[in-house]
Design goal:
This protein is an all-alpha fold. It has one domain.
Length: about 70
């Protein structure tokens, strides 16, 4: 009986095992509620805009500094 179990496991290919294990892991995920998802999405968008403004400002300052140093 144990020999049949070993042969059955050997016939399962890697793709089947991947999808079986992936679906098992997705069942364990604690998905956020819609209000949580909206709140977190807004937080990500706000941080992205803030970082974009910050990096644009730093780029502008670096450009002005290089122009000052190089005399352009």
């Amino acid at each position: 009986m144990a020999e049949k179990d070993k042969k059955a496991k050997k016939t399962e290919n890697a793709i089947q095992r991947y999808f079986r294990e992936t679906s098992g892991e997705l069942r364990k995920v604690n998905w956020p509620t819609w209000p949580e998802a909206r709140r977190l999405t807004m937080l990500v968008l706000i941080v992205m805009v803030a970082m974009g403004i910050f990096l644009s400002g730093m780029d502008y300052l670096a450009d002005q500094l290089m122009n000052l140093v190089l005399g352009l």
